[in-house]
Write the structure tokens for this entry.
Amino acid sequence: MNGPAYGAGAEIALASDIVLASEASTFAFSGGRVGALCCISGILGPLTMNGRKVVEMNLTGNTVNAQEAQLYGLVNQVVPPAALESLAKMVFDEITHVSPISNASFKRIRRSLVTRRSLTVAYDELLRTITSKDFKTGAKAFAQKTPAKYYP
């Protein structure tokens, strides 16, 4: 990561095996700010991040910087922007020295923690949010570059 990762971008980072970030990176599970939902973070967040922080980030939509994201378990390593590419090459090289079957087996075990039921609930809740009045309100506010007002 070398910049902002908000909403689905932060969820892609969360779902990734290894996340390398520059000091210029920021992260937010901000779907709720536009009336949507970062549903995958509700499943994967507790498996990889500090559970309380992933809840706070979803309920507030607040942003964390790269160092905070590392502290909370969203990011593996943080370096200056100019060092990001060399770090990525180094990590890739380290991976090539580990058995592919071992890595594949580890990833299968990790994926087995995510159930079909949890994915179904996440999909249903995402659909519920993006077809709601709140989503229309949030999308309009986003387009106008103003904060959404969900409460009177």
Remarks:
- The chain has one domain: 4-143.
- Residues 4-143 form a domain with the 2-enoyl-CoA Hydratase; Chain A, domain 1 fold (CATH 3.90.226.10).
